[in-house]
Amino acid sequence: MTIRIGLLGYGTVGKGVIEIIHSHQERIQALLGEPVEVTGVLVQHLKKKREIPSSILVTSDFDRLLLQDIDIVLEAIVGEEPSFTYCKKAIEQGKHVVTANKEMYAIHGKELKELASKHSVSVGYESTTVAGTPVIRTLQQLLQVNQVEKVEGILNGTSNFILTKMRQDGTSFEQSLKEAQQKGYAEADPTNDIKGYDAFYKLMNISELLYGKQPNWDDVYVEGIDRVDPTQILEASFMDKKIKHVATIEWKDGDVRASIQPISLTEHHPLYSIDGVQNGVVIHTDLAGPLTLSGPGAGASSTASGMIEDFITIFQQSYNNVHQFQ
Amino acid sequence: MTIRIGLLGYGTVGKGVIEIIHSHQERIQALLGEPVEVTGVLVQHLKKKREIPSSILVTSDFDRLLLQDIDIVLEAIVGEEPSFTYCKKAIEQGKHVVTANKEMYAIHGKELKELASKHSVSVGYESTTVAGTPVIRTLQQLLQVNQVEKVEGILNGTSNFILTKMRQDGTSFEQSLKEAQQKGYAEADPTNDIKGYDAFYKLMNISELLYGKQPNWDDVYVEGIDRVDPTQILEASFMDKKIKHVATIEWKDGDVRASIQPISLTEHHPLYSIDGVQNGVVIHTDLAGPLTLSGPGAGASSTASGMIEDFITIFQQSYNNVHQFQ
């Protein structure tokens, strides 16, 4: 039987999802034992011209998409709503959900997880945090006995690009931001990136996963990179240091502590060498030691990749439960 | 019902395994739904004084260990034999196996995997490669749709320590090796490390996993670090480069190509910043981009940690197959 996907959003990530499912069809089928198809795509404006095969339903009506007998929803839209309403409805109707929406998931992740458990479906959210670089699934699947004592991360590519640029070329914050926008890394409104909110949402998703809870949002110190000036960067350079925008989460004195701020790192810090749009995390574990994982933290292909890997994991579980020990 | 472990070897890693099972008993039980105990330990010399609880059988007779009704064998001895014979026998009697033995697994891994499949048991081998840093399980579980085009790795901590020392302190190869031995990183006979054989075995295990085959061993160019002299390192430093011992494996022209040799890297290479006894790999994927994973590549706690995480994964599969969707 074909596995049927309903895709929410047809921006760069949504397009990436369809491309991968097309280009990797054979591999996916080998992994799951069944063919996979995108049955319908939810878009905001129906009239916009798009190159979508005519076999795929294109609709702006979520309920119509759900009627297509889909097995799973891949959600690639931004912002809290209507994303949350859609995901909730999908789960209530017994569909699995994979989301790349960091803001929505930071706010409603716990609720969605609980709902999914009630309806015997799964929620994948790898791409909410560091795109397709498998930070979430490393914490979730690969470190189970290990206690994670602390996670430090460079979680926003735009901020890291700007800080790298300022250091390497001596340009101002404004000039560097402009270049980030020209290269398509930063949005027209870059507030979420440069004020640290984007990194904040990602950190909250890590917190939920690690500790089953988030700190009180008001108690988290969040400082963006918009007040970092070239002099500070130069001073750090003189001491062989780099200023990096670091998000930290740890369990301390019986509670979760989190902060996000520019700090200067020596070359011995594992995040020191993560430059440009790259993202990375250091996972401090009690047994395996500190593990560093880095890779692209954004981009259509990487984000879509994380969503497809989530999708595979979800269906492989069901598949393996039938074809045990093969 | 209690899950019963037979442990092979009581060196630093074997001790580490017992320690973790003791210290993390509650967590392990929460993960698997059952208590876990080390039922017996196989040692080479029975007369040696050891602090092992009297409830655990200590024997030098493998068959006697197998008679203890164990569910899984954790193998922490070195060298091809008798490790292979033990693992084979265990699998044939329906026991799962987790091994940390890179040499044995590079030679017999494929055979053991096939045998395990026939007997409906699993083989875990995370700790054969970069100890508890989850390189194997990242490739195995987290990158399924992604095609891995190439893996580059610093796979031997002793070599990396020596090269780092030579660059930082300007010491000779011999002096640096001596220091590695004093610190307990290098064996009394350091041949396997400095000639590249240790990295070679690890690379072969990665090859088997990625491509289901290994290159012809004679076709792999293997050069150790024993001919690197301080002048080369100094010259590299002048050009802001570092000489690193890099193992590379890729699929090219219809076959697997592998090499292991000292090469000089610029600061833009993700392995450039991996210094000292740290190990790391760059996984070049077609969708998620290049991912870098680094951490301790040796050490009792890290190696034992990788074995226990393997152990958890194996039993969790069975557990989840019973308690689906919880």
Automatic annotation (TrEMBL), chains A, B:
| Domain Aspartate/homoserine dehydrogenase NAD-binding positions | 9-125
Q: Which Gene3D superfamilies match?
A: Dihydrodipicolinate Reductase, domain 2, NAD(P)-binding Rossmann-like Domain
Instruction: Look up the EC number in the record and give it.
Output: 1.1.1.3
What enzyme category does the UniProt record give? oxidoreductase
Q: Which residues form the Homoserine dehydrogenase catalytic domain?
A: 134-312
Q: Which domain of life is it from?
A: Bacteria
* Pathway assignment: Amino-acid biosynthesis; L-threonine biosynthesis; L-threonine from L-aspartate: step 3/5; Amino-acid biosynthesis; L-methionine biosynthesis via de novo pathway; L-homoserine from L-aspartate: step 3/3
Q: Which reaction does it catalyse?
A: L-homoserine + NADP(+) = L-aspartate 4-semialdehyde + NADPH + H(+)
Task: Alphabetically list the UniProt keywords.
Answer: Amino-acid biosynthesis, Methionine biosynthesis, NADP, Oxidoreductase, Threonine biosynthesis
| PROSITE patterns, per the entry | HOMOSER_DHGENASE
Decide whether keyword Oxidoreductase is in the record.
yes
Question: Family, per the entry?
Answer: Belongs to the homoserine dehydrogenase family.
Q: Which PANTHER family match?
A: HOMOSERINE DEHYDROGENASE
Name of the protein in its database record: Homoserine dehydrogenase
Organism lineage reads as: Bacteria, Bacillati, Bacillota, Bacilli, Bacillales
